[in-house]
Amino acid sequence: MYKIFIAGTILLTFLSSKAFSEIQIDGILDEEDWKKAKVIETFYEVFPYSLNEVTDYKTQVLLIETKEGLYFGFKNYQSNETMRVMSHLRDQERSLTDKNGIVIDFNGDGVEGYNFFVSSSGSLGDGTVRDEKERNWDWDADWETAATVEDGVWYSESFIPWTVASMNPQTGDQRKIKMAFYRMLMGVGRGFSTIKGSPFENLYLSVFNEYEVKNYSSSKLDFFPYTNLTEDIAESGFKAKAGAEIFWKIDSSRQVNMTLNPDFGQVESDEVVVNFSAFETFYSDKRPFFAENNNMFDVRSRMHRVINTRRIGGRPDYDCSLYGSLEEYCNANKAESSEIDFALKYTQKGKLDFGLLMASERDEKFSKGRDFYALRLNTSNKNIKYGYLGTYVEKPVFDKNAIVNSVDFDYKPSKLHRLTGNFLHSNTDDKDGFGMTMGYGFDPNKNFHSGMGITFIEDTLDLNDMGYLILNDRSMFNGRTQFKKTDFDEGSILRSRLYEIGYGSKFNTDFQRESSNFALKLENNFTNLSEIKTEVFYRSTGRNTRITRNSELAPYINMPKGVGGYLEFTGPRKPLYIYSLRFERGRGSEHSPEIGWGSKSRAYFKLMPADNLSLSLMYQYESENEWLNWLDENLLASYQRKQRTSIIEMEWFHKNVHELRIKTQMVAFTGRDPVAYLGNLQGKLNPVDIGIPPITISELAFQIRYRYEIMPLSYLYVVYSKGGRVSMQDEEDEIFSLYRRPWNSPEKENFTIKLRYRF
Question: What is the pTM of this model?
């Protein structure tokens, strides 16, 4: 392991910092230029969503525009007793610390916004906003920010260069942009904004305030070489890898991103998920190459994503039957991921937005790499936006291709109404498939929202070569109606109350009913910052066409009625700690196919003994009678299921340059007293005398990650990871014994040093 430490030290032979202007970003607004800044002081309360003008907490925003970019400073006045100062990970928006920020719509068309925030500790976050209020924190930008705290006030100072985003060309000397400034006071549980809208409500991007700035042109070239050194402890191997990424912003509207021999491994480990269902678990992609300008290619609904970039560099295709005597060796040596030779992305903003994405995988042992292509066209006219997204995947292992065509639109005739839709076509392995989603929203005032949607997806629609589709062969109607009250008397213990009704009905594409559901939700937010949430649901009988994986012997299973609910309590926010408790009880859920009664309990506790240190613990216990699991064809089994999940996490920071994170996630899953069933053509489960062994599964994900920020977007990572999955057919139930199994016999254990540096 010493070889890695020595190599990592050599790689840090030079460190540098970068300043964008003569204004020093130090959180102290003492330069003469700030005296000439535009001043913004009118804020509205958006959490709770009263929309009343704020008079009790003074907030001042200072705004300066230059040819390099935008400078903005915040003066946040409040008592020391209510201040919350806590360092946090980048993009950790829900951290319990005071923060302020800005969201910029550089085109002023309400299509896309860029979010930048800084906490009172100086920790930062950045992300994008699309589809009115859908936020994505995977995008990281090159900008500067700092904060300072004084008696009765804290300040932030930030610089956002024009080069952070691609912009539509605008004629003339002036550019129209839209912005929203906001401030969160976590100690009193309130949020303010310069607009009457919130990302937690249904109106946001469309109600931004308009500003005029000079129509500056910008360009930038960034070169990111990287080196990744890994010692595979489990396999006793050592691997060194090097590559580079190039981000070239040609001008304000055009950008080219290219990567050679890219490092597409993520230093962040995915959450451990025990999934026995027919539905694939979706994981987000934090890789910088794909996160940059990703919104242009992000066409999705609750059911699908036309592009899922985690497919690129994913598990290779294999057909081991082609290798004769080596078939068994081929099956035993399948790789978990593919190497990538190169990837290219080009985007251009204008009257017609244009985007092109290409990536090529390297040939692996017993496998040939795939090639991925995507084309995006998008335009808007007054109150309607519409576009096309097409993908093409070459699969040489199977000598076949996969094509997907998608047309999407977003129509807003007024602030009251909104209509969205997506029409899909796929041709995969010479099979055509069609699908569509439609949604309608109605927002007559700040207290009321109603929305509904329909979905139709043929059984031959397939997006999963480059996209993500939860399931096909589905017709669905669903909706929800919300009413929120924030205008309580001064002496009331309530700050806000939410009522919600949800409903839906599901069919296959032959309109055979699967199930219908109905749910009632109530949320109470109290003046002491505690919360109580509760929900009850009802699910009708219906067919489950997924659990048997399209078996011809049992195409569906008739499911019983489901009923249940949950109760969740979040305690008052304290400077030292926070906690929450949740309890669920029911037969299945409004969406899940379980046939037996079950319960789930969860407890969460977070301790914050210092501004730069936090410790958290989550424990969840689940149990269920008659948990139904598919085994093969029409063979299923019911179990007495029990699952225990523990997550322990520690975060430590030093001056927002050094970051140490230790996280452990452990899952112990047991299925006992199995009873075998055979499904028939009528969807009935018939008990059979077949010996079914019990299930015992232990999963572990453990990681120690140190990150040193050399300069914005340049990092040194030192990471130790360990984990895996152990599946047994025994009756072990002692929780610590189950947790130890993957620790003692890990599937993976490695030590990595990674340096990513920007020139």
Answer: 0.88
